[in-house]
Amino acid sequence: MATPVIEFKNFTLRYTSQKKPTLHDINLTICQGEKVLILGPSGSGKSTLGNCLNGLLPFSTKAEFTGSVKVAGLETREQSIHKLSAHVGTVMQDSDCQFAGLTVGEDVAFSLENDRVPRPIMLQKVKQALGIVDMTAFEQHVPFALSGGQKQKAALAGVLHNDVDILLFDEPLAALDPMAGLQAIELIDRIHKEQGKTIVIIEHRLEDVLHRPVDRVILMDRGRIVADTTPAQLLCGSLLQDNGIREPLYLTALKYAGCTVSPQDEPDSISSIRLEGKLDHLRAWFAQPVPPLVRQTGPCVAELQHVSFSYDKKPVLKDVSFQLFQGERVALVGKNGAGKSTIAHMLMGIRRPKDGSVLVEGKDYASLSIKEIGERIGYVMQNPNHMLIKDMIREEVTLALTLRGASKEEIDGKFEQVMELCGLSGMKNWPVSALSYGQKKRVTIASLLVTQPKVMILDEPTAGQDFRHYREIMEFLDELNRKMGLTVVFITHDMHLAIEYTDRVIVMADGEKIADGDVFRVLSNEAVLQRAHLKETSLCALARRAGLPPEAFVRHFIHYERMVRAGEQ
Question: Where are the alpha helices (DSSP H) in 45-147?
């Protein structure tokens, strides 16, 4: 009989700052050696659940609770965080929060030093932990200079040396490019198999996690467990759709084609699913004509001409050229460090090229001030909290106009206009603190729209958001593009965002532009994806298994899905 290592019994938790409980009557048992995914939309309580089992709650935040939580047979409320850390190792969503040493080796050794482990044993444990995660060569590197995937490996090494029984991963894919995310899931799976650890993964990106098998999925919504089942059972029911979780794309395509998918089909991943009896349906659906959505574009609004740039003599951009046209929807993709953010900084005038030119509406921006460039090109950061500086929404949205000395009549008129456009009309006099994350995102966009920019650049607009909020923000941005003729540039790792909401993609790799063109053609090119550290969508993989052309199949899927959303199918 399997040994329980995590036990929640009739557990309810309420933060003292809130009126209602965040977790309601949780009953959950996870046994030794299991690999479990805790899934749910934003605000479902999944991260709170994780913090209860690693001891951060109730010790880090004031909360009231009833019931019991046991880890390795120990009642967590009776233990210190230090005592629990000997059983549970946590890899946080933001790895930077875990680093305490000046080098990777020092950081891995941090807790060992605190425990006064003799130096020879400590050095041995550090090398052993780094070896498990393939980071031996980075022992003397500065943690903050690592890539997102390398940071995550270093953070994992920092908990492995304690030989903990349980590893908790909180949103491990959030900061990683597609290929690094795939490699992270493979690494977690390897450690699970080789080390025999109990693995708990908290995520909302279901398809990515199921790249490697999990034993169970715990689905949460509004602080309650609504399902505790196998991946196959979950994928074949309606619970994902009912709870705002995106199902794997290949399953959506099969359903559009009229195929029935059962647990016996082994639907956990695109590589495992059985397609017997489904291929004829899939090919017949693909043969149906679907009219494309045609968008009109205008003149060139911004341009890079043979731009090169270096940080500390290290080349970051190498002879990059492209144009942006009015009304375009463009995805800028590539692995971490490929040069995407530097391009954004070039377009905004924050950085100036070493060689080459940047033009805004035909003018070399060397002749323009930052203020003049900012009136034409807006930038929305990934985290809206990094942009908001005023207490009240009205003050935040109208700040740029106020600083430019606009009249009260102009300020009031543009404020009313953008608040209506952004779906914020009922919040004109609200404090910023009362807004949800998604609403704050809209406020940052509204504060840029009052200046009537020609181009808006958005850095990972859907990062960390569940499917429901993803759809909400992307439909909103799509509407802005249609109504205003606004050129929208998305810096993103999300391949489905690119194919679903853009028409053109620019691919960067090692500071070079390696592809620029139709989003379906470019993101179906295996050579381009490999060089850029991206991964093909499961739609491409499904097409290949069905003997259909991937580019045409993905194009058909997206056009059909747009018709479904418009209520035409």
Answer: 46-53, 56-59, 81-85, 104-114, 119-132
32 phi/psi in degrees, rounded to 5: -55, 130
Q: Give the Cα separation of 566 and 177 in Å (integer).
A: 31
Between CA 446 and CA 415 the distance in angstroms is 8
The HSE-up count of residue 321 (CA atoms within 13 Å, CB side) is 6
Burial of 515 (0-12, 13-18, 19+ CB in 10 A): buried
Q: Bin 291: left if φ > 0, else alpha if -120 < ψ < 50, else beta.
A: beta
Is the CA virtual torsion 382, 387, 392, 398 positive or negative?
A: negative
Helix (H, G, I), strand (E, B) or coil at 308: strand
* Residue 90: band (very low, low, confident or very high) from pLDDT cuts 50, 70, 90: confident
Q: How far apart are CA 412 and CA 401, in angstroms?
A: 10
Among candidate residues 268, 195, 254, the one with its CA nearest the CA of residue 37: 268
SS3 label, residue 218? strand
**Which residues sit opposite 509 in a β-bridge?**
512
Place of tokens 């181009």: 455
In whole angstroms, give the CA distance from residue 519 to residue 498: 7
**Looking at residue 85, what is its pLDDT?**
84
Phi/psi for 313 (5° steps) reads: 70, 5
CA distance linking residue 255 with residue 242, whole number of Å: 16
Q: Which residue ranges form the domains of the chain, and what is each CATH number?
A: 4-246 (3.40.50.300), 300-493+500-513 (3.40.50.300)
Phi, psi for 27 (deg, rounded to 5)? -125, 115
| HSE of 24, CA atoms in CB hemisphere, 13 A | 10
What is the C-alpha end-to-end distance of the chain, expressed in Å? Answer: 50
**Residue 189 in 3-state DSSP?**
helix
At residue 275 the predicted structure's pLDDT band, cuts being 50, 70 and 90, is: very high
Residue % of the chain over a pLDDT of 90: 50
> C-alpha dihedral over 545, 203, 1, 3, to 10 degrees?
150
DSSP 165: S
Question: How many whole angstroms separate alpha carbon 135 and alpha carbon 128?
Answer: 10
Count CA atoms closer than 13 A to 528's CA, side-chain side. 20
Residue 277, both tokens: 């009896």
How many residues does the structure list for the chain?
569
In this structure, are residues 519 and 504 in contact, taking their beta carbons and an 8 Å threshold?
yes
CA atoms of 119 and 198, how far apart (whole Å):
29
Could you write out the DSSP letters of every residue in 332-391? Answer: EE-STTSSHHHHHHHHHTSS--SEEEEEETTEEGGGS-HHHHHHHEEEE-SSGGGT---S
Q: Which residue has the higher pLDDT, 340 or 155?
A: 340
Measured N-to-C along each axis, helices 249-256 and 279-287 cross at an angle, to the nearest 10 degrees, of: 80
On average, the pLDDT of the chain sits at 89
| pLDDT value for 94 | 65
List CB contacts of 136: < 8 A, sequence separation 6 or more: 127, 130
